[in-house]
Amino acid sequence: MKYMMTYDLMESTRNTYQWLGASARAYASYPMMSWAANPGMDWLKAWGEVTERTFSRMVVKPDWNLPPISDDKGKDHTIVIKRVLERPFGDLIHFSTPKRKASKRRVLVVAPMSGHYATLLRKTVISLLPDADVYITDWHNARDIPVSAGKFDVEDYTLYLVDFMRELGPDTHVIAVCQPVPLALAATAYLAAEDPKAQPRSLTLIGGPVDPEANHTEVTDFGRSVTMGQLEQTMIQRVGFKYAGVGRMVYPGLLQLASFISMNLETHSNAFRDQIIKAAKGEASDYDKHNMFYDEYLAVMDMTAEFYLSTVERIFKNREIALNSFTVNGKAVDLGKITTVAVKIVEGEKDDISAPGQCLAALPLLTGLPESKKFAHLEPGAGHYGIFAGRSWRHNIRPLVLDFIDANSGDTAKPANKNAAA
Fold first, then answer.
1. Residue ranges with strand state E in 97-241
2. 202-206/342-348 β-pairing
3. Residue 190: how many CB atoms within 10 A of its CB?
4. CB neighbourhood size of 378 (10 A)
5. How far apart are the C-alpha atoms of 422 and 414, rounded to whole Å?
6. Spatial distance between the Cα atoms of 90 and 113, rounded to a whole number of angstroms
7. In sequence order, what DSSP letters do the residues of 312-380 get, joined into one string?
8. pLDDT score, position 104
9. In b/e form, how buried is each residue of 346-371, taking b as 16+ CB within 10 angstroms?
10. Which long-range contacts (CB under 8 A, 24 or more apart) does 78-84 make?
11. Cα diameter, the chain
12. What is the pLDDT of residue 142?
């Protein structure tokens, strides 16, 4: 039962703030509070609205809410989400448009398992849908997975990617974003040795820590400054009785969220202060810029303890990918076995999560890949979020990625939809 009380204490604290926000909003909304002008009640209601929404979003998995896409004739097509492969810790899902002509570009987007749901890449998916047949890895919240499902670490994650790539076949183009970049590289190398015909045609690796020591950030500094014992004692907790995963050891999403916010505390504090002011003035709405961003940013999920700890130890501390010493089920994964898969590296100049150079370190490791199949792009002025979902992605990086996919496809795909990047 060790750490179960601390897990429940965090959830109780979150629940209490949600209740306080709802109570403040309800109290300030009583008709009697309007009998006389009282700006204090407007501020109390605004604080309650923002506080309730903030803390309630932390335990809700966001919907995809994908808008219809238009074909060449201007006809709208709705998106149907289908589960292609279902696994205990994550599914392979497909964004299908049944009545639209199939795209020749088949893209697998590998979403991070770093505290947020795959819906963090909603804008990435929306931008790709007009021009590609899109699949994505949909990782599950560890607190909802029974202990009987077993463990899930970096090797299991890699094997999940291997299964997903095999399912989609060799005409697939993989886009890995942030945390899964080194493991997507490892999965491809694993296939190169075990099942070469199942390898994807191309890999686009966006802002991931292939070699964390290539350029230090707060993330890498933290990883080097703590021991594995300290991490296990301070970060790992046991899921409480409220969830199906009761008893499972996890790295709680709420702890990860606290870490994210602490990295830019002043920015987030100012954002919530400004939102309260807007709410008090009646200028806030459900779909304003603040709520659209934070509804996704605040929605966090737990990771299995073994995945979190093995990521820190094997990817960041031991640098097994950077040193080409990674193993899966006792088998050495040699990145030099990749000889036919084109690889494109995308980094952001101002990325403070995976700084420039960390992802680029993948190219020298691909000793069996011809230089003609290695590409790299550094986006000027772009931060971490911008290189896969922001303006830099939409206007600059996305067209480059689609051109890269076309150049490495068996058949020539149709030109990109320019409107989708606007």
1. 106-110, 133-139, 172-177, 202-206, 237-238
2. parallel
3. 28
4. 16
5. 18
6. 10
7. IIIIIIS-TTTTT--EETTEE--GGG--S-EEEEEEETT-SSS-TTTTTTHHHH-TTS-GGGEEEEEET
8. 87
9. bbbeebebbbbbbbbbbbebbeebee
10. 79/129, 83/138, 84/135, 84/167
11. 77
12. 96
Tokens at residue 181, please? 């970049």
Q: Which residues pair with 116 in a beta bridge?
A: 300
The helix (H) or strand (E) run that includes residue 56 is helix 39-56
Tokens 């020298």 belong to residue: 364
Least confident piece of the model among 67-71, 349-353, 406-410: 67-71
Tokens in use for 18?
A: 């949600």
Structure tokens at 71: 């074909």
- Structure tokens belonging to residue 17: 């703030």
Residue 38 neighbours by CB distance under 10 Å: 12
CA distances from 242 to 32, 162, 306 (A): 38, 33, 21
What does the block give as tokens for 33? Answer: 């509070």
Residue 122 structure tokens: 């909603």
pTM of the model: 0.90
Angle ∠(110,199,310) on CA atoms, nearest 5: 50
